[in-house]
Structures are given as structure tokens and as C-alpha cells.
Amino acid sequence: MKFADLHLHAWTYSSLSLFPDLSNCTSYEEIVEALKAQPLNNWYVGVKFNQELLKEKKIPTKDLLDSWFPENPALLVRTCLHLAVLNTKAMEQLGVSAYSGVFLEEDVFNLLERLIEVNAIPKQEVLERGVQNLRALGITKFVDMHVTKENVDLLGAFPFYTSDPDLLDNAMGLKLFLDGSLGARTAALTKEYSDDPGNYGKLNHSDQELLYLVEQAHKKDKPVALHAIGDQAIDQAISVLQKSRHPLDRIEHLQITRLDQIEELARLQVAACIQPIFSKELPWASERVGDRIQTSYAWGLMKDYGVKLLVGSDAPVDDASPFEAAEVVDRLDGVHHLDKDFVLKLYSIDNFDFYGWEE
Asked: Which CATH number fits domain 3-11+127-355: 1.20.59.10, 3.20.20.140, 3.40.710.10, 1.20.58.480?
């Protein structure tokens, strides 16, 4: 069976294989052990940690990293790729500065690029290994969702979206980040986080600014892919696509949704590119949003209401395997459930059909 993954980050997926995977760490002690077991030159870099799985339940701080590695640069990247923590030595060597040592959103990708440059990593070789790994999973076609001026020469041969208007002529479409991530509590919500009173997350664009960017893409006959995790961001995505549309416009992720939004998405027939593998987050996501979880990660509800579904892994945020994603949601009940065969059909048929690709 051949699959198309419509949302992943091929270079980041490939490059993160260079560093210790911290996704199975359950304590700070285990993080330190994993980092010390696999240094890169004189760096200690770990990726895919999740504070929700640690007994400490907290993101490691810059001061903590300084205490662990006082003489060496150290860097941790959260599993969502929307948050990184650097110690003092790492910031010095990368030429960046933040009192907290915490960097968010686009800065995380830029820091990883700078880290690769500083360590003279052979990018083409790393990418080729990553693409081979994807093919071993049956993924014969994919869309890279984060191509920049810095990596366009490396990734430009693949179908891609970009956030850089200067690259839009050669891209499939424009990628716009409307909010952040649920894990970092930067996803934009209409009601405050249940486990962080007073925090609603944050929208990255005003309504007027977002509409302008979308219209500029549409004038070039290019669709947009709107990253929208929280329901406030989804409201903004729906609002702008009611005003300006391209038949291949997409909304990405749609994790925290309301029923009225699902109904409107079905009516508008806006494609929703979901990540069923993210359903593994349900236990801690329910702490973030409380009762709102009843219509969140609600892939089955979207299907029942007739939302046009596409599918991707968002690798390396999570496992790239379509079979793993299918197993995860097949085990769930109610609105969160999708049949395994349906998920594999999304990967093997619907994704290809959306862009008119040969299967």
C-alpha cells in the first residue's frame, strides 16, 4: 500500500534523528542520562520531550540546564516543535539571547538550522536517510509544510508549502500560523486554559492582517494552509475563508473544536488536514481544556458531519507511520474514533485525490 502524507517536515524529521529522542523519558534524571549518552560534538541536544510525561510536570528551565551542563551548550526541543529551551552556553554559541532561555514558534526552527550550521552537519546526506525512512513506511509522496529560503535548495524538489511570500511562486501554497500549540499553551482559545487560568493563548495575526495575506496568495492562484489548533484560531480561519477562497485551501490540525465550527466546516467544504496520531494527547489535553475535550480531537464527529478530511502525521512531532496513526484512533470510542481502514484510505486514496496525484 502506498501513502501520501500531506503534512510533515521532511528536513526536521531527518535532522532530529541526529539527537536523543526524549519522548520516553519520565523524569529529569532520565533526560540527563539520555543527553550524556549521545553528545553531538561538545553539544548536549535532546528532542521530543514532553513535560506532561515527566514526574516533575514542568518544562526544564535555562538555570536547570546550566546546572546540568555548566561547561557545555545544551538545548531541549519540546515534542510539538513550538518550544525550545537553551542554556547560557548554547545561546552564546548560537548568537541568541533570552533571559528565560525559552524560544517559541518560528524561532525554534531557526535555532535548529543554526545548530546544524554550527556543527557542519552534511544536510543532503541526512535528508536522504530521512526520505528513505519515510519510504520504508510506505510514504511515497509527501508535502513539506515548512520550506524557507535557508532550505529551499535542499527541499525544493518536493511538493512544499512556505510561509515566505518570496517563495510562493514555486510553492504549492502559503502556510500561515494562526496560533501556537496546546502543549506550550500558546494555542488560541475562546475560553481560558482549564489548567492555566487567565491564559487564552495567542493569535499571531489580526483579522485584517490575516485576510490581506490570504488574499495575496489567492491573487496568485495559490491556496493557503492555515495552522489553527485552538478554537479561537479556528474561528479566525473560518472567518477569513468565508471572505476569500481557493478550492485547495486547507486548515491544519483543528484539535480544539466546537460543534458549531464542525458544522460550518462541513457547510463550507473547507478541507481539514488532521493528525489522528495526535489522539495520543487526549489524557493531558483534557486537563488543558476540561469539558471542551468532548468535541476536541473529534475526528469521528468531523467525519459524521461531512467535513472534507485530509490526513498527515506532522512528523517529527509524532510518529510518521500511517499504520500507527490508524491503530491509535481505532482504539478510541465515540467522537474521537475513526476506523483503521478509513484512516488508511485517507492516506492512500483521499490525499492523492485532493491534488490529483497518481496513486
From this structure: 3.20.20.140
